[in-house]
Design goal:
This protein is mainly β and 738 residues long. It is built from no helices and 63 strands.
Length: 738
Amino acid sequence: NARQTTPPTGTFTQSSSGYYHGCAVATDASLACWGGGFSGSNFGQATPPSTGAYSQVSAGVGHSCAVVDDGTVTCWGRNTNGESTAPAGTFTQVSNGGDWNSGSPIDFSCGVHTDGTLACWGDNTDGRATPPAGTYTQVSVGYTFACAVNTNHRVVCWGTDTSSVISTATSSPALEVSTGGGYACARLLNASITCWGGNFSGSTSQTPAGSVTSLGTGYHHSCAVTASQGMKCWGYNHRGQLGFGLEPQGFYTNSPLTAGTTLSSYSLQLEVKPDVETYPTIFRPPVTTFAVTDGALPDGVTLSSSGLLSGTPATAGDYSFEVTSTSLWGTRAATFLLTINKITVAVTAASPSAINPATAIPLIGYTTDPATVVGDWSVAPTCAVYASSDSGFANALTGTQPDGTYVTHCSGGTSTNYNPTSYVDGSLVITKIDVAVTAASPSAINPAMVIPTIGYTTSPSTVGGGWSVAPTCGVYTSSDSGFATALTGTQPAGTYVTHCAGGTSTSYNPTSYVDGSLVIDGSVPTVGVTTLPVFESGLGFPVAWSATGGVSAITNTDVRYRKALWSASLPTSYTTWKSGVTARSATFTGTQGYKYCFSTRARNLIGNVSAWSAEKCTTLPLDERTLSTTGVWARSAPSGWVAKTALLATSKGASLRTKAAVKVKRIALIALKCKACGSVVVQVGTTKKTVSLVGPSTNGLRTLFIITLGAKTTGTVSVTIATTGKTVKVDGVVLSAS
């Protein structure tokens, strides 16, 4: 019935809204009504008298009444209970009410006589058409009751006490009262508004503050004109009857809210709209924004300004919060309860990597499905290892266990966010580890050594110990392919096989055996002294020796010598010069006129020692002071010469000679060789040799001249100057009988 919101054109002094129609008094005192009948009925309630002058009109449910200029009342429309049959008399004001209840008319009307008394007519259920005595200034007929303001400004109500509207009527002094569907409102002496009775959609609780100049109530909503000539409406707004002011909106949908689940996506659109969808489009609520104004949303859930509740709830529980919506029609707050249930998860016991019987059973973890579930247990599930025959999981196993396949199982667990609803078992395999046993290859030994005990290693290298019976290892000849006879004691030189067999363990299986070797080294080093010169020119001279060969490396060497005067035989005894040294050369300092013979030997790592090497010999010089002089000789002391002295002469014929006859085979002269030097004749017996001392050497350098005789010759050895005025400087002679 959109026609009820389409009033006629013109100007009016007063209007009244009924259930589905309205009426107004025009400025020319005529009446105009518009709209239709309730539920499609039409009793002519919107068809007023066509003639007459009127001062006030009241539109009801199925009928309407108006005060004629002469004070009488005229009514039209439905008259089932006489509600359209007005009593005689003159009135200052009239009011219509009632409702259509399941098709039963309960309309009635009341008016204020010019003497202030009340008159009512129509349906009289619960005495609603029987007004109280007294004098009154104004009356208002509601749903099944009526209220009036008496001349003492007190509100008096009668009829059916719907929602306690009669028994709770205000006691405050009032100027005006207006009744609705089970509630009433009054404009008090202080110009404020108070309402009582049923509070449908805030009809009694959302009254505006401030002063008002007039008041009107509908079935479940009310409006008032403010002192500033504004309009305030409140209560039910299912058909836009509150208008577009800042007044409460319609009802929220989506309450109660659909429950969510922790860790699962949640999405729900809040809406604000009336409980009836058939109202005209023009009155549908405009765009609304939403905000949480009290309480808290679950962690992980947000409310968008457009009213979308969304997110992934993190924690289970019941969450109460207030949402306020705002639109051009005003604001509305509502409290919601959002229940977040725990997510159900399956707990799967871990299946660790296989271990061996020597390894203690590890801690057993778990995973959950959904896989995103982690942590946050109040009491975490407990997981352990059980024998496969322990179907009741009565005895959790710990420590080491024999090989086999075991069950991993979890139970229990409590959480504020999820329920462990099923448990999936895993497994743990305990198995012996296959290992390769490798016989040790000891360091080489020599034939004099006893064969050592042969050890072993295993692969993987981490395997060790835990043998019930350890592998046995021994040494075998390379020809003993069946490893029948293990060798012990000492054995001749050669390369032997080391081999292991057997071995039992609860932790691992010796599945292969790798042979090693043992070398028995009988070789000895090859040694020798480096050849020495027949004669030495000084008392200190270098001696070098060598040691090589053999399977094992050389560790050290010994060096010995024996000595005798140049003319004597060597003794059979030796003197140790070097013992256990790693060096291969050294400087030896001897005595004038002695012959020295050196030999060496070496030893290797396994203790093999070579025989003494062949001797290498050399003879040291006699100082010139051991010789007799003839002629003029001068003694000098040049640095570095034998015994730090030398004889110098320039006269031909001056000579040096041994003090006695000697038996020699080789003679050497130690003298200066220089550009200005002369020559000498060296003679023994009848054998002589002229030796030139001329050379490019500068003063101070020595030269050794050797005379080798064919056989031992006996006689005095002499050195005679063969030149005149030439320098001859002699340091000594070397005599050798060999």
